[in-house]
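Predict the 3D structure for this chain.
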Amino acid sequence: MFQKQAGGTELLDAQRILGDHAKLGYGDKVAALGCGPKAYFTFQAARMVGDRGLVYAVDILKDVLSSVESHAKTYGLMNVKTVWSNLEVYGATNIPEGSLDLAMLVNVLFESADVVQMLKEAVRLLKPSGKILIIDWKNIGVPFGPKINRRVNPNQIKEYLDVFGLKLEEEFEAGKYHFGMIYKK
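Done. Predicted structure below.
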């Protein structure tokens, strides 16, 4: 029902991205870092990891987390746990360090005032061999989405993650207007 949506439109196919690219599996532990009020990737991940998995829905806005919690209950997704955090503060996210199979940063880096700290926080939460999924807006002009000057440079993200010791596993077209990357710890 909501698997193909992002931002209220059908721009991203969460099921395809999480299955084909992130290789999300039953029992995995996942965090949607900056999940947002619609939380499409959060809910799709929760279905894919099943009752033995866990999906943390992390956001800085408490009303967003209340909405996600309410929707998770409505959808019968008891494996979604909301976590309030400022992702730009290293060590602030109340998820066990080194515990995640996958950290998702979907359409959130363009909003960040400190992309480096946000990436560093995501890396901290990954277990050895854990992955980071990054999806954000391509640097192309379209009449919607964030302004070009707010969009992140994929090459700069690669440089940061290389410094943190992660290895690029895959780059892919996440959608017509989005780039995607999978990095492994």
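Confidence is low (pLDDT under 50) at residues 1-9.
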